[in-house]
Backbone:
């Protein structure tokens, strides 16, 4: 089963760019929601991320990862693959 990765972003966000770069380096496809172009997505993000307002907010198989630093920490700890396998 392929992991579903969702990332809420903004156009000029350097942390969003870093997070997407890591996902691309790992060969992972993701769905991107631009909260600046689609303001309704911001409210959706706030609800799903339990009030987290910063971007990016990343979800793997519906599970909240957090932001860019959280994604990199997960990768460094060798746990990203585990999250990708969990459904």
Residues:
């Amino acid at each position: 089963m392929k992991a579903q990765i969702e990332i809420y972003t903004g156009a000029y966000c350097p942390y969003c760019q870093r997070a997407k770069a890591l996902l691309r380096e790992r060969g992972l496809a993701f769905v991107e929601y631009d909260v600046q172009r689609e303001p309704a997505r911001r409210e959706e993000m706030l609800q799903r991320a339990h009030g987290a307002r910063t971007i990016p907010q990343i979800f793997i198989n519906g599970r909240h990862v957090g932001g860019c630093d959280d994604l990199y920490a997960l990768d460094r700890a060798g746990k990203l693959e585990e999250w990708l396998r969990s459904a």
